[in-house]
Amino acid sequence: MHDESSRRWQPEPHDSRGQPWSSVGVPRYSHCPRFTSKLNAVCPCLQVCVAMILPSRQIALSLSLLLLVACAQQPVATAPPAEPVFSAPPAADVRKPQREPVLPIEQIVQLLESGDYRNASKHLKRFLAAHPSDSAAKNLLQQTRLDPLSYLGAEHTTHVVEQGETLSSIARRYLGSAMRFVILARYNALANPKQLEVGQTLKIPLHPPVIDRPLAATASPSAAATASGWPPPAGTGATVLARLYGERIEMLLAAERYLEAVDTAAEAGERQPATGAWSGWLKPLDQRANALLWQQRAIAQMQTSDVAAHESAYAGFAKALALSPELEPAKTYREAMRSVLVLDYHEAAIVRYRNQQLDAALELWDKALALDPQFGPAQGYRLRALELKRRVQNLDAAAAQQTVTDNP
Predict the structure, then answer these.
(1) Are 325 and 356 in contact (CB under 8 A)?
(2) Does 123 or 61 have the greater pLDDT score?
(3) How many CB atoms lie within 10 A of CB 346?
(4) Rounded to an integer, what distance in angstroms lies between the CA atom of residue 274 and that of residue 269?
(5) Least confident span in 179-188, 291-300, 397-406
(6) Cis, peptide link before residue 214, omega less than 30° from 0
(7) Are 8 and 47 in contact (CB under 8 A)?
(8) Which parts of 286-383 are beta strand (E)?
(9) Is the pLDDT of residue 102 over 80?
(10) Using CA atoms, how far apart are residues 64 and 58, in angstroms rounded to an integer?
(11) How far apart are CA 174 and CA 181, in angstroms?
């Protein structure tokens, strides 16, 4: 007798053609309990399907399809989809537009002196937005807007520029204020007002407008001067007037507004009660203001690469030091400009020498040696130029003599 389990281990049956079932796609040991348990672990449908396998190729194929369909219908546990990660958008690069700085009035004056009226006008507007009561800035801006011919008049005389004169000093002499150099420059159509040449002719209006001075009949003179702005009104006492002018000039010097300081000192000299009455305090301030103004202009000129500007800078430092012998950096910069000019003259002389312009080259080397008598390169080249000039003169003389001989 065989029990139920023994029957499961009988040799596997064959189909009607004598082929074992395993050859038609059914596992040979499909009746093995261990095999069945492994299949059931993969898919619960396998145990039932294997038990129902019939010895037929067509049925085996059909059952295989059923097996696949049954397995496909089993739900497959899948991991839940990951939650989307939302990242904050990058912060927008919001930058405030860069605003141009408010230039001090002395730098704006330098723009005006160089003839850059458009840029100066822009900076004057920005300056007045920050300092709406500044009378000097208002005056300068007005001069950039006025029609010079209509304002100063067509009738004019002439002035020939002399050594040491500036447009500011000429404006103070003829128009009553050094600050009026802007309208005078435009009246003469000067492209670069600070580059005046000795012997240059300027038009001077015959009937320039009188400078308006605010008057105040009420309140104390000091309070009236403070309320109405500058200059102090007529009727101010000499003591108060001297104090106001002294404080004003000191304030302008501290602010490096040297042109205004010079103009204010000249105005104070006109309003002193008697000639020389304020010279004890006014003359030192006036000299200091002029020295600083010459130094300021010379510093601006030395920063260019133009030989003529370097010459003006060197002369400007000399004028500043004549008024204030220990003024710095004028004292140091003048020595630096001396060396720069020596090289300028030497390099220009070499160009003339190579172009056989011997007289021009010698003149430049003479200038270089006047500034630095020990400058070796200029000494050597100058001797060579003199020797070459002597030879040329001898050749010219010989040629002239030959001409006389050939034409008795």
Answers:
(1) no
(2) 123
(3) 21
(4) 9
(5) 397-406
(6) no
(7) no
(8) none
(9) yes
(10) 10
(11) 10
Peptide bond into 55 cis (omega under 30): no
Rounded-to-integer distance, Cα 252 and Cα 268, Å? 14
Please enumerate in sequence order all residues whose Cβ is within 8 A of that of 259, keeping only pairs 6 or more positions apart, or say none.
Answer: 106, 109, 168, 178, 179, 293
Say yes or no: do domains 105-203 and 313-408 share a fold.
no
C-alpha to C-alpha distance for 4 and 144, rounded to whole angstroms: 123
Q: Residue ranges of the domains in the chain?
A: 4-71, 105-203, 313-408
The DSSP symbol for 205 reads E
Distance CA 320, CA 331 (A): 9
pLDDT value, residue 44: 52
CATH fold label, 105-203: Membrane-bound Lytic Murein Transglycosylase D; Chain A (3.10.350)
In sequence order, which residues have a C-beta less than 8 Å from that of residue 313 and are 6 or more positions away? 298, 299, 301, 302, 333, 337
Q: CA nearest 167: which of 211, 127, 119, 115?
A: 115
Q: Does domain 313-408 have CATH number 1.25.40?
A: yes
Cα-based distances in Å from 300 to 21, 114, 194, 350, 390: 110, 10, 11, 28, 42
- Give 277-313 as a DSSP string: TTHHHHHHHHHHHHHHHHHHHHHHHHTS--HHHHHHH
pLDDT digits (tens, 9 = 90+) for 206-254: 888 865 443 333 334 344 344 346 788 888 888 899 999 999 999 888 8
Q: What average pLDDT does range 4-26 have in this prediction?
A: 49
Burial of 282 (0-12, 13-18, 19+ CB in 10 A): buried
Q: Could you give the C-alpha distances from 280 to 254, 262, 288, 320, 349, in angstroms and in order?
A: 20, 16, 13, 21, 49
Q: How far apart are CA 371 and CA 350, in angstroms?
A: 17
Q: Tell me how far apart the alpha carbons of residues 300 and 337 are, in angstroms, rounded to a whole number.
A: 12
pLDDT band at 204 (very low <50, low <70, confident <90, very high): very high
Distance between CA 50 and CA 67 in Å, rounded? 10
